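As described in the Methods, two query proteins were run sequentially through the folding procedure within a single session, without resetting any intermediate state between them. The first query and its resulting structure tokens are shown here.
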Amino acid sequence: MLKKEFQGQDVEFLYLGYNCKKDNWEKVIMQEQIDGFHYWLNEAQGNVLKQKFGITGIPHFLLVDKSGKVIKDPPPWPSDKAEIREKLNELLVP
């Protein structure tokens, strides 16, 4: 799992909930035992992210550097671990 592979390095995995019922979202997190940083967004917050990152549908996946720049557009799908690993390693090189 990529989260374990990059544990202790300068990489964060965020899960944002938006445009769904909050209790259903929380239930899935518990059922699937998804560890990580989870944030529920209200409509205004979700709209800001949609505009900033050009989000047109959900689910949406992004690789974003510390400055807020999107690394690859369109982003690799979570199942494409090799490409995600490569992009993360590029970001970690000083």
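Immediately afterward, the second query was submitted; its sequence and tokens are:
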Amino acid sequence: MNRPRTWQTLLAFATIYLVWGSTFLAIRIGVQEVPPFLLAAFRFLLAGSAMVLWMLARGVSAPTAPQWRSAFLLSVPIFLLNYGLVFWAETRIPSGVTAVMQTTIPGFIVLAEISLLGTQRLSWRLAAGLSMGLAGVVVLTSDSLGLGGASVDRISAGALLVASFSWSVGSVLTRKLPLPASKAMSSGAQMLAGGVWLAVAATALGETRGFDPGTVSTGAWLALLYLVVAGSIAAFTAYLWLLHNDSPTRVGTYAYVNPVVAVLLGYFAADEPLGPRTVAGTACVLLSVLIITTMRKVVATG
């Protein structure tokens, strides 16, 4: 197999670093005018439909009935709960902090592997990593540490922890359920199913009642377009390409870079606060991610 050119690799990394890091700000812009679950529904219905149709046009087999059932089951924790709560939280807290809170996902995935799969056991290093992540959350939400600046709304922070836990459960379940062999088709099917669930939730929550698309500004619609095309299609395609052409360890570095990009974009482009509290909380959570994602897997026995 021919090695990819350097510029292709750099472009792919730049895409997952910058685009995924910037989607949090795009969400923040969008939810100021479009209800959160409805905006998320628009994003994933459009992106999922485009991905599935693109794969079908390339000759990839359509998902079978059992695979569609799996997609709809997985899309509950991954899209309805995770993304739905992320979009909702961004109506209340800064985009950069949301991105930092989402980096607790690796810790929750390991906990899910321990409790649901039994493929991992607790080690001192893992405990240290999880404790560091928890410390970061405390720094962001506590009023008693003397770090200055407003603390993060605790209800929103709790919702984001639920979102991260839901994503981890969905990620673990993907190893147990039948899904299309094509990763792109599998992702498209899950996005489409997630969009359906989010649309149902938006309707149940009354977000569609009285919503007038004509009152939404061009900027908010452009934010949605960016989320669909750049965030869901282009970045995911770059991610899959990198997984096939580079080491998983290097590809996984997006988990460290995305929150930094999100925090800096929020500060410079949206006047979000960047005080000692945000810096300290972000540092703790990123150190947690570093500890957890670089440790050797300790396999459970017995």
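The chain has twelve helices and no strands. We note this only descriptively and draw no conclusion about the first query from it.
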